[in-house]
TrEMBL record:
<dbReference type="GO" id="GO:0006412">
    <property type="term" value="P:translation"/>
</dbReference>
<feature type="compositionally biased region" description="Basic and acidic residues">
    <location>
        <begin position="1"/>
        <end position="22"/>
    </location>
</feature>
<dbReference type="Pfam" id="PF00333">
    <property type="entry name" value="Ribosomal_S5"/>
</dbReference>
<feature type="region of interest" description="Disordered">
    <location>
        <begin position="1"/>
        <end position="45"/>
    </location>
</feature>
<dbReference type="GO" id="GO:0022627">
    <property type="term" value="C:cytosolic small ribosomal subunit"/>
</dbReference>
<dbReference type="Pfam" id="PF03719">
    <property type="entry name" value="Ribosomal_S5_C"/>
</dbReference>
<comment type="similarity">
    <text>Belongs to the universal ribosomal protein uS5 family.</text>
</comment>
<dbReference type="InterPro" id="IPR005711">
    <property type="entry name" value="Ribosomal_uS5_euk/arc"/>
</dbReference>
<keyword id="KW-0687">Ribonucleoprotein</keyword>
<dbReference type="InterPro" id="IPR000851">
    <property type="entry name" value="Ribosomal_uS5"/>
</dbReference>
<protein>
    <recommendedName>
        <fullName>Small ribosomal subunit protein uS5</fullName>
    </recommendedName>
</protein>
<dbReference type="InterPro" id="IPR018192">
    <property type="entry name" value="Ribosomal_uS5_N_CS"/>
</dbReference>
<dbReference type="InterPro" id="IPR013810">
    <property type="entry name" value="Ribosomal_uS5_N"/>
</dbReference>
<dbReference type="GO" id="GO:0003723">
    <property type="term" value="F:RNA binding"/>
</dbReference>
<dbReference type="InterPro" id="IPR020568">
    <property type="entry name" value="Ribosomal_Su5_D2-typ_SF"/>
</dbReference>
<feature type="domain" description="S5 DRBM">
    <location>
        <begin position="109"/>
        <end position="172"/>
    </location>
</feature>
<dbReference type="InterPro" id="IPR005324">
    <property type="entry name" value="Ribosomal_uS5_C"/>
</dbReference>
Length: 283
């Protein structure tokens, strides 16, 4: 007789836990490249300041844009402006700009593209066509900037123009027509500016008059926080770029006049660079 040996089934080995790792092959490479691209974008978005002003802003030694304007400090990094205005007012994509819907509290930095036009340069190989963009930014409370940029693609020109506008942002002084009642609504005195052959003249207006001028003048003044103003222009005003720059130069002159209300002597403050010299030296 032969002994019958029963075979006892072996217990199932524990299944290895699934690891969320990219494998080999085209799918694994694609996922790996996607993760690397996302990591590069995150590192790119992280701001590493390169100037003294940027370091003071990032460490919150300077808390407002007015401190920068008070000491006439040059903004050389557009991330400084983004630091003070991190939020964007929500708007539907592709929606036409409506000035009445913009927030005028000063908490948002609004931006819009004023004009895009092709420009050409004659070279040995032929004509080289690029796109020129004009961008306008402002918080509707006394800060406005205009930027210009040329690029091979429209998207690059718009992006560069917005960055240039942030670097050119300037404070605008506002005033009253007649009695000082309520908030400042117009410019404090007559102003004029020119760019190319275009000359723009701005005149204070009573409350409720609105902005009397061309659509370009209305946009620039509204982004600066001026709600009542008379305006006049001469020259080749069809050149939109020179027209908006002339208006911007006129507004910048509002801080160049020493009116009687500013005759009182004030105590001079140290520059942020002098106040934080030890911090800038150690870091």
């Amino acid at each position: 007789m032969t002994d019958v040996v029963e075979k006892v089934p072996k217990p199932d080995a524990p299944k290895p836990e699934a690891k969320h790792e990219t494998g080999f092959g085209p799918r694994g490479n694609a996922q790996r490249q996607k993760n690397q691209r996302r990591q590069r974008d995150q590192e790119k978005d992280k701001w590493v300041p390169l100037t003294k002003l940027g370091r003071l802003v990032q460490d919150r030694k300077i808390t407002t844009m007015n401190e920068i304007f008070l000491h006439s400090l040059k903004i050389r990094e557009f991330q400084i402006v983004d630091f003070f205005y991190p939020d964007k007012q929500n708007s539907a994509p592709g929606q036409r700009l409506n000035l009445s819907s913009l927030d005028t509290s000063g908490g948002y930095l609004h931006e819009t593209v004023m004009k895009i036009c092709p420009v050409q340069k004659q070279t040995v190989a032929g004509q080289r066509t690029r796109f020129k963009a004009f961008a306008l930014i402002g918080n509707c409370m006394g800060q406005v900037g205009i930027g210009v940029k040329c690029a091979k693609e429209v998207a690059g020109a718009i992006r560069g123009a917005i960055i240039a506008a942030k670097l050119n942002i300037a404070p605008i002084r506002r005033g009253y027509w007649g009695n000082r009642i309520g908030d400042a609504h117009t410019i404090p005195m007559k102003l004029s500016g020119s760019c190319g052959s275009v000359r723009v003249r701005l005149i204070p207006a009573p409350r409720g008059s609105g902005i009397i001028g061309s659509p370009i003048t209305k946009k620039v003044l509204f982004f600066a926080g001026v709600h009542d103003c008379f305006s006049g222009a001469s020259g080749a005003t069809k050149t939109s770029g020179n027209f908006m720059m002339a208006t911007f130069y006129a507004l910048k002159k509002s801080h160049s006049f020493l009116t009687p209300d500013l005759w009182e002597s004030e105590k001079l403050e140290l520059s942020p660079f002098d106040m934080n010299s030890e911090f800038l030296a150690t870091k």
